[in-house]
Specification:
The complex is a heterodimer. Chain A is 46% helix and 15% strand. By secondary structure, chain A is α+β, with helices and mostly antiparallel strands. In chain A, strands 2-1-5-4-3 form a 5-stranded antiparallel beta sheet. In chain B, α2 runs antiparallel to α7. Classes of the chains: A alpha+beta, B alpha+beta. At the A-B interface, β3, α6 and α8 of A face α8 and α10 of B.
Chain lengths: 240, 293
């Protein structure tokens, strides 16, 4: 499903070696620039890493102006492509004007949301100096990368919440019972969905259990998690 | 004759839905229900492929956990995986025949335990690409005729069109983006189901029943309603509990909750409250042939 260069990138990510990730991603995906912006603790998306100066500037412009496929993608959770920014006169006029004025070598943007249902953690943006559509392999590789980054950052990485690399493969995250348990936990703990999922994964990790098993126990009401993660003395596991 | 009439009604209904700004999951679910009626099968479900090449159920004729689990078992094995990989449909698979079911014994056992005897899997095709599968089950030893098989494939084709016709923000009507959107929409619904199940202290199946009933009664897209539940724009006390869900307090809740809900509403209240004004109501579908079951 994914190409070998991207598989190598994902392996690096899993091994916890995200140095120069942006440059490596750009090369693997065959594009001129890559930028990642994350939504941290309720604030709007902020650029975390990028490759190519132009890509970094455009990323900044988009979120400063609040205009562009990146902010739209982050807000709606939908993939967005701007195959030719200069020809696109309808959408994002300020962004287009700024790019033209600064003579930035960015002509096309492709945005992939880092989302899991209603949880949006950010957006991955690919940039090219030439207009046009992505090739099918580029598109599916970018999707796979976005899914892997979603899993990575939902594990708390990058936000400084948990230093250890997360080993949950994206597939494990994509289970109905995991999403149901996330919803249930968010009510039990009175926290947003992303934090509920973080707790769920932290519990699975701490008890070395598969995520879906823990989720099934929550959905089956065999397990409840206590509202405060810091009160570790309180039993986290209660049979009913 | 009666069947032809139903068939016509179904196609009119589905075609009608495709013109509107439709909710893909809701449409696929209607389509699954119609499959059960038209093909005289016991259950139907629609699975879509994710970027990793795994199948996920996004809609079913009967949204119970047991049936959904049967679809979810096929993320890596089963007749739907075969249909996806080969691009060819396979009907009239005898689940009781050990030779037939040998390649995916785990799935076959689970299907039999759920009472199913025969299954069918048809690919969701778009040009030379397969984007998912339509899966049918019967509890009796009845088989699809050639004509019925063609009809089943037609339903699978409609499902494909529905997935690829969703109106997204995209300028390019990219197939991957459409697929991803349908899959992600399903996740939103699962998350909302969890929230409602916890609030009501009930099962996720009943939570879904309540969610869907409210969406249909108020002409809302189930996806929009799910989003509203998740980000708190909709007071979930507005959603009537489906029949059979007791308005009893959660076992772990303090005594006070026997009278008032956590939001402060009486738990047994079905008093009409102001309509949520944040959600865009769809205009009623004109001439919809009949109410969804």
């Amino acid at each position: 499903m994914i190409t070998d260069p991207l598989a190598a990138v994902l392996t690096r990510l899993h091994l916890g070696q995200p140095q120069d990730l942006a440059a490596v991603c750009a090369q693997a995906l065959g594009v001129d620039g890559v930028a990642l912006s994350l939504t941290v603790a309720g604030r709007g998306p902020e650029a975390v890493w990028s490759f190519s100066q132009a890509s970094a500037v455009v990323e900044d412009l988009q979120f400063t102006l609040g205009q562009g496929p990146g902010p739209d993608s982050a807000r709606t959770g939908a993939m967005l492509t701007a195959g030719d920014l200069l020809a696109d006169t309808e959408r994002w006029p300020d962004l287009r004007a700024a790019i033209a004025e600064m003579k930035l070598p960015v002509r096309a943007l492709y945005c992939f949301p880092l989302s899991l249902g209603a949880i949006n953690v950010g957006v991955l943006t690919l940039a090219r100096t030439r207009p046009g559509a992505l090739l099918p392999w580029q598109f599916s590789d970018a999707q796979a990368l976005a899914a892997a980054l979603t899993a990575w950052y939902l594990g708390g990485n990058g936000a400084g919440l948990r230093p250890e690399p997360d080993s949950t493969p994206p597939l494990e995250l994509n289970r109905a019972e995991v999403h149901q348990a996330t919803g249930m936990l968010s009510v039990q703990l009175g926290v947003p969905l992303d934090q509920a999922l973080l707790r769920l994964r932290a519990h699975a990790y701490a008890h070395t259990r598969p995520l879906r098993d823990v989720a099934a126990d929550i959905v089956g009401r065999r397990l409840r998690l206590s509202p405060d993660p810091d009160t570790q003395s309180a039993p986290d596991h209660r049979e009913e | 004759m009666a069947r032809q009439l139903r068939l016509m009604e179904t196609f009119v209904e589905l075609a009608d839905s495709l013109i509107e700004d439709f909710d893909v999951i809701d449409l696929l679910q209607r389509l699954s229900t119609r499959c059960v009626e038209l093909l005289d099968v016991s259950a139907a479900g629609i699975l879509l492929i994710d970027p990793h090449g795994d199948l996920h159920a996004v809609a079913a004729s009967d949204e119970n956990t047991r049936l959904l689990e049967l679809f979810s078992l096929q993320h890596d094995q089963g007749p739907c995986v075969d249909a996806y990989r080969s691009g060819k449909g396979r009907v009239n698979i005898d689940l009781t025949d050990p030779d037939t079911t040998e390649p995916w014994a785990r799935f076959a056992v689970a299907a039999r335990e759920s009472g199913y005897r025969v299954t069918h899997a048809l690919p969701l095709r778009v040009r030379d690409r397969i984007v998912g599968a339509l899966n049918l089950f019967t509890t009796t030893e009845t088989y699809l005729s050639e004509e019925e098989t063609a009809l089943a494939q037609a339903m699978a084709d409609i499902a494909t069109i529905a997935v690829l016709q969703q109106r997204t923000l995209n300028d390019h009507q990219n197939e991957n983006a459409q697929l991803q959107n349908a899959l992600n929409t399903r996740i939103v619904i699962e998350q909302a189901k969890g929230i409602l199940a916890e609030r009501w202290y009930t099962g996720v199946d009943q939570a879904f029943t309540g969610l869907r009933a409210y969406a249909r009664a108020h002409q809302l897209r189930i996806t929009d309603l799910s989003h509203a539940v998740i980000d708190g724009r909709l007071d979930t006390m507005l959603i009537p509990r489906p029949a059979g869900v007791p308005a009893a307090p959660p076992v772990h809740a303090p005594e006070a909750a026997s009278v008032l809900d956590r939001d402060g509403w009486p738990t047994d209240s079905i008093t009409p409250r102001p309509q949520p004004y944040h959600i865009t109501h769809r205009k009623p579908r004109s001439g919809s042939p009949r109410e969804e079951r």
